[in-house]
């Protein structure tokens, strides 16, 4: 495999808690997270609400400084010198959940995209600017392009707005897209179209993508690699089918069991698709998280070790890995079956 485009190692984030009596208290939002993104490949970061996915994305986008850990873009550690940051911001683009909030309601598509294009190509104007704007609209499948270029955000549907947000990100020719739940606020009927667009951008533009979701079925549909987060800790990861067919962490198994059948065809148009069903129970309080593996209070297989120490990473032959004491204790077989 080619060298990583973006690589984060042992990233941690603690947020200070404000208020009376909370001096020195922090929310341990992310602990020792590793993410590696390659050109032409999509990694899913899957976990329930509050597991730290957005915080990881924001650290990767330099929107939050990390408490610990390193980020490397094309092998070079991220420097906070102003010029270096500017180049980083161009190469790493973040796409949010809500396409309406991401667009200025007073600006037409032509202005929004033109402005982004000129960030990368300062002298761009006139016919060339128009041509490149139209080309961006084609790339995100908003055709016939003439119908869209002079629209305001409120004249577009949610899916069309998210395509404009993606086109604006592409305008600066990034190498990495970070999509934070990019389909979760869209109508079910168009979610698949946006996932297909992201897949096309991976294949045709060679982008490296991080796809953040609470829904493992959409991760399976889109992504090459899946990583699972629980309460700020990365608990499992690996090639998509290995993680889905043979989860190595009890939390991944719970997510799969609570999800609408991830094996069901996404072409079925099932309205419930991409929404986690079932009761996953309460995630822990990250101000005072459980010791050891944070999943242990909910884990049917919890042992003494789980309460004491977060387990080392166990590697499996096909690139799958997990942090779970079951494997350290040769008890991984208890996870087999029923997924
Ligand atoms: N700015 C902040 N200040 C304090 N705590 C924060 C801040 N941002 C996030 N947190 C806390 O960090 C933890 C992780 O939050 P985060 O938003 O990263 O999770 P998430 O998996 O993206 O969830 P969601 O899908 O709901 O956005 C949560 O406990 C959250 O309350």
TrEMBL record:
CDD domains: ABC_NikE_OppD_transporters (cd03257). The keyword ATP-binding applies. One of its GO terms (molecular function) is ATP binding. Keywords: ATP-binding, Nucleotide-binding, Transport. The keyword Membrane does not apply. Residues 6-256 form the ABC transporter domain. It comes from the Bacteria. InterPro entries: AAA+_ATPase, ABC_transp_ATP-bind, ABC_transporter-like_ATP-bd, ABC_transporter-like_CS, Oligopep_ABC_C, P-loop_NTPase. One of its GO terms (biological process) is peptide transport. Belongs to the ABC transporter superfamily. This is Peptide/nickel transport system ATP-binding protein. It comes from Kribbella shirazensis.
């Amino acid at each position: 495999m080619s060298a990583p485009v973006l690589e984060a190692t042992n990233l941690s984030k603690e947020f200070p808690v404000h208020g009376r009596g909370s001096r020195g208290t922090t929310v341990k939002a992310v602990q020792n997270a590793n993410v590696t993104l390659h050109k032409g490949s999509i990694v899913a970061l899957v976990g329930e609400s509050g597991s730290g996915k957005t915080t990881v994305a924001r650290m990767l986008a330099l929107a939050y400084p990390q408490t610990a850990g390193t980020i490397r873009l094309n092998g070079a550690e991220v420097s906070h010198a102003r010029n270096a940051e500017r180049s980083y911001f161009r190469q790493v683009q973040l796409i949010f959940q809500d396409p309406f909030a991401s667009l200025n309601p007073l600006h037409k598509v032509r202005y929004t995209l033109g402005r982004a294009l000129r960030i990368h190509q300062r002298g761009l104007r006139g016919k060339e600017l128009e041509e490149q704007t139209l080309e961006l609209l084609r790339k995100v499948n908003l055709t016939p392009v003439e119908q869209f270029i002079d629209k305001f955000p409120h004249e577009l549907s949610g899916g069309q707005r998210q395509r404009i947000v993606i086109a604006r990100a592409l305008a600066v020719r990034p190498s990495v897209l970070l999509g934070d739940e990019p389909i979760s606020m869209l109508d079910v009927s168009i979610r698949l179209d946006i996932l297909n667009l992201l897949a096309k951008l991976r294949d045709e533009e060679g982008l490296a993508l991080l796809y953040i979701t609470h829904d493992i079925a959409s991760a399976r549909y889109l992504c090459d690699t899946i990583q699972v987060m629980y309460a700020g800790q990365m608990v499992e990861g690996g090639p998509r089918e290995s993680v889905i067919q043979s989860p190595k962490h009890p939390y991944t198994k719970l997510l799969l069991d609570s999800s609408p059948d991830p094996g069901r065809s996404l072409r079925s148009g099932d309205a419930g698709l991409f929404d986690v069903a079932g009761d996953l129970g309460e995630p822990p309080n990250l101000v005072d998280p459980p010791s050891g593996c944070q999943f242990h209070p909910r884990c049917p297989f919890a042992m003494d070790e789980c309460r004491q120490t977060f387990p080392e990473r166990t590697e499996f032959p096909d690139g799958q890995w997990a942090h779970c004491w079951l494997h350290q204790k040769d008890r991984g077989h208890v996870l087999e079956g029923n997924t």
